[in-house]
Amino acid sequence: xxxxxxxxxxxxxxxxxxxxxxxxxxxxxxxxxxxxxxxxxxxxxxxxxxxxxxxxxxxxxxxxxxxxxxxxxxxxxxxxxxxxxxxxxxxxxxxxxxxxxxxxxxxxxxxxxxxxxxxxxxxxxxxxxxxxxxxxxxxxxxxxxxxxxxxxxxxxxxxxxxxxxxxxxxxxxxxxxxxxxxxxxxxxxxxxxxxxxxxxxxxxxxxxxxxxxxxxxxxxxxxxxxxxxxxxxxxxxxxxxxxxxxxxxxxxxxxxxxxxxxxxxxxxxxxxxxxxxxxxxxxxxxxxxxxxxxxxxxxxxxxxxxxxxxxxxxxxxxxxxxxxxxxxx
Length: 329
Hints:
Elements: E1 2-6, H1 11-23, E2 25-26, E3 29-30, E4 33-38, E5 49-53, H2 59-66, E6 72-75, H3 81-86, H4 88-107, E7 116-122, H5 145-162, E8 167-173, E9 175-176, H6 189-199, E10 204-206, E11 213-217, H7 219-231, E12 242-244, E13 248-251, H8 252-263, H9 265-268, E14 271-273, H10 277-284, H11 293-297, H12 306-328
Parallel strand pairs: 1-4, 1-6, 4-5, 6-7, 7-8, 8-12, 9-11, 10-14
Antiparallel strand pairs: 2-3, 11-13
Helix pairs in contact: 1-7, 2-4, 4-5, 6-8, 8-12
């Protein structure tokens, strides 16, 4: 089996590649090669893994990757919500044109080629006013450019799958918490920041109120979603190829209290409440709670405890620190 990961240098992409390398197989088939593609080159040290860098909006670059006829393509390449909202043209070029390039490269590769394409969509495809909880059948009426781009991509994925060009599965990811490393440009970045920064002894800005409720999942759960989507029997999905992934519905206040219980009052005190009208406006249009019955009925599994997510992040950071110190020695 040959695997292509678009967006493989990102946090989730790298974890996915690490998991594939560690497992050595996918769906009972031995992995022969993994290619990781991103705007910057970066990969996992392994004889199985090759890497390249380029622009997903360049059709020639994507066609050359598809020419190798990977059996499974994971499409994670995207610019994040806040950046897509501020840089309108860039958002459509990367998030929408990039998806079109992937689908067209697959279609033009030949009638005998029909790979599994796992596309990372977003809960941002839904917009207020919401039903509570939101079901997969709820109206797609996004209130951001990012959500609009993802919603269009879902429609394209379904149509190309219906026509038999690709075997697609779209997974609407919750906000992933806790993301390691430096903050990105996602409007949702503070959900990770208010946990990650205080645990590192750094002040974190909280731009919204404690009563804001959101749908979250851990990085480990996100990788699990991707792997399951790659091996799922798509016949049970019919023509509705995108599903909302399970997650946790939790308020900012509950997140802060969980941090306080695990790391203490001094750590929680590093969270500084500074309302940001722009972020508040964006977040007010985001969904808060979901019924992911369709996804769970076909085997997708997510976190059930936010404390476990925080503790897993602490353990991951400790392991990363030890590995860095070991390399330096």
